[in-house]
Description:
Elements: H1 11-22, E1 36-40, E2 45-49, E3 55-58, H2 59-62, E4 67-76, E5 79-88, H3 104-116, E6 119-127, E7 130-137, E8 140-143, E9 153-156, E10 161-167, E11 172-179, H4 185-195, E12 199-200
Amino acid sequence: MKYLMQFRLLLAVCLVAVAAFAANMPVSQAAAAAGYTYTSQQYGYTIQCPAKPLGVIPLSVLSPSEQGEVLVFANDGYDIKKAWVVMQNAFDEKDLTNLDTISEADAKVLFAKVMASGYEYLSLVQIDGHNALYGMTSKVKYIDADNDGKPETKVEAENQQLKTFIRGKNQRYAVILLDNPELLKQDIKEYQAGVLTFREIDKKETKKK
């Protein structure tokens, strides 16, 4: 399973990208107290946001090997303080089997494997009519630095992330909350409410001139 790298974005790049993509963001008639509905025709999804993003940046700007978008909600100088990352092709077929049909025994094996990769919490949630994997990354973990088979070296991450892995009909997505320097209760609530509204949509074909 591919895991998202930590992102830092220079303010100049952020401002240019926000200005360039904000103009193309779809406007929802329902964008009021209930939030803002963001729809991506390019990546085939829609999601309810707590507010209209300041801008939407291609994930490839921050991580060239990844596909998707970064919905930026807050930044401070050089840092993105709060964002939702929607990643496409977020995991391999063999790494995350069909969670709707997975057996209890296989689920235990899967959870143990993912937990060992750096998670402190995992759960199955219903999204778009199917089971998805929701989890929180660990703030502190131990690694086997001397390769003796025993994790003994303590490593502390710069931040924690909430990640939800969703198997759609056409794509394999991850929706990730980036909150720097730490996860905030309000942001967690907004993310949890938002990710439950995630829906895959059919992409519109671009007409060739």
